[in-house]
Amino acid sequence: MSVPGGSRLIVGIDKGTTVTKAAVFDEAGTELSRAARFIQVLSPRRGWHEEDAEVSLRSTMDAVAEAVAALPGRAGDIAAVSVSGHMTGAWLLDDAGRPVRNAIAWPDARTLDTLTAFEAGPLYEEYLDISATSALPGMTMLLLGHLARHEPEVIARTRYFACAKDYVQAFLTGRVVTDPTDVSLMPGDIASGRISPRLMELTGAEAFLSRAPEVRPSGEIIGTVTREASLATGIPEGTPVANGLGDAISAMLGTGVVLPGQAVSVLGTSWLNQLVNSHLDDDLRGVGWVYPSPDGEHWIRCLAHTAGAGTFDWAVRTFCRDLTDGAGADFAAVEAEALASEEAGHGLTFLPYLSPAGVQAPFKDGNVRGVMLGLEHGSTRGDILRAVYEGQVYAALDCYRRQSDDLSLLRLTGGGARSRVWRQTFSNALQVPVELVTTSESAALGVAILASVSVGIWKDLETAVSAMVRTVGRVEPDPRMAEPHREAFERFVSAQAVARELFAGFGRAGIQGKD
């Protein structure tokens, strides 16, 4: 159990897409130090998203070394290390764990045409039967299929294919290992948590089957810090390394969301709405992504809707020019105007689907676009702003309601979580408490929590979360607002159905207009 004074430390590493970060936490979850380095993105062709894996590794180790050095005399207190990383993509490694080509990261779009044809073909239903998750151009198996066709010479040089965190772990321990969360988005067999030979065959990646990494449970001690890694980071040789997590799951754990009915919404460019489920059903087949929970006992479904920061920025830019200047918008003034309008009682319904990609969750519709209904002479700017805030919340509510009626707690993170209007609207519309967490490095904290259990600091994840995750502010739902929001959400869903039918008739060309 816990050592008095919280003397043991855990290093959490978050290998990001554009920024890689390292943080040192004590066993109470206090962030004692952190450091970051940018990742250089390489685009040798349009739509490609690669990185020099060895350069990225050095940057990551530099961040770890800086975070450790910021606590002089404390390196010997480090009890464990664990790694989070951006999911899917393709890191091809040789026998010594060195990259055989540039790493390909998840935003890469080189397989887009292949994916479009695959989704329309006869094998996609079998793919969904095995994976239960929506396909992305940057998924590992699609990328491996592309490489098998266009760069077959790399197959012979490859001993392992892996994901971002696996490569970092390989340097730390000398062992190439992945975990079920990263496997889920390669994708793999969702039922077993293993790499699926049949999925590799369906995606044209079967030539790489013998190059699959070992899959071990999340949190299992997979090795210890080698002498080389110790010299690079300052972490003592022999320090245990716990098998890490994909970043989406690690960030969720870092917000303290671990039990069925708990959820986290990341309010960023897109809004990621992630809910822990006790079971899966087919109602959302082919929409969003499905991961196993870190303890392997539950399921996490992530539904990302595109009505995020871009939609809100459009509203402010269009309706609040007097509240913006070269330095940005006066968001306090924007919120004040919205708060002056009656919550769920202004008579407007806003569909926030302004993205050219249309809607990706909780349904897929590339044609539907944004709509504002109910405008009249008396409608104020505050009413319009309030409708935009609420419409974005209803899009998230739509994602949660199609998964479960048992939502009990929502935590918010990302830039939009700072908004008073969004916090209260979420709470009142969903009729659940809404909380914010103190850490800004939730993915690094997530793997630190995992590692703390692995080395026996805490007995299980629920106990570790209680000890290591702290919230700042809690918004309780107003029961008087349940009915107004229920009625407003019903109008939202009805408007959504009409808009989908309307825009389907125009098609993409009709929506996008002339060049």
Automatic annotation (TrEMBL):
Record's keyword annotation contains Kinase: yes
Superkingdom of origin: Bacteria
Entries under InterPro entries matching the protein: ATPase_NBD, Carb_kinase_FGGY, Carb_kinase_FGGY_CS, FGGY_C, FGGY_Carb_Kinase, FGGY_N
Domain Carbohydrate kinase FGGY N-terminal: 10-254
Gene Ontology MF terms: kinase activity
Keyword hit for Kinase: yes
Domain Carbohydrate kinase FGGY C-terminal residues, every copy: 266-454
Keyword tags: Kinase, Transferase
One Pfam family linked to the record: FGGY_C
Family in the record: Belongs to the FGGY kinase family.
Protein name listed in UniProt: FGGY family carbohydrate kinase
